Amino acid sequence: MSSELHTTPMSTFSIRLPKATRARLDAVASSLRRSRNFVLAEAVEQYLDLHARQIAHIEEGLADLEAGRVHSHEEIQDLVRELERLAEDDAR
């Protein structure tokens, strides 16, 4: 990501943080020998990536539901019982 920061057009905005959070941010930046800005930019990128993946998974699940690609509660219960039985057999 650091190389992206040098080649990507940047925008500035301000953020309000609790003092304790800013102190934690400063401590992390200091321990990494990075700027506060670098740590925040990296954190925002990771946050956005995480939530983009979560949203994609939710949308995939909704598409599966709409297409009927689902299992009934009873089917899942049967599967769990079978897995528990196999685990018990392996334990013996």
Q: What does the model show?
A:
The protein is mainly α and 92 residues long. The protein has one domain (2-91). 77% of the residues lie in helices and 0% in strands. The chain is built from 4 helices and no strands. The protein has helices spanning 2-7, 19-32, 36-67, 73-91. Helix 2 (19-32) crosses helix 3 (36-67). The longest helix has 32 residues, at 36-67. The model has no long low-confidence stretch (mean pLDDT 94).
List keywords for this structure.
92 residues, mainly alpha, 0% strand
The percent range for helix content is over 70%
How does the overall form come out from the CA principal axes? elongated
Give the total of domains: 1
Low-confidence stretches: none
Structural class of the helix and strand makeup?
Answer: mainly alpha
Strand content: under 5%
Report the count of strand segments: 0
Q: What's the gyration radius in Å?
A: 23 Å
Q: How many DSSP H or I helices? A: 4
Q: Major sheet, described briefly?
A: none
What is the ordering of alpha helices and beta strands?
A: HHHH
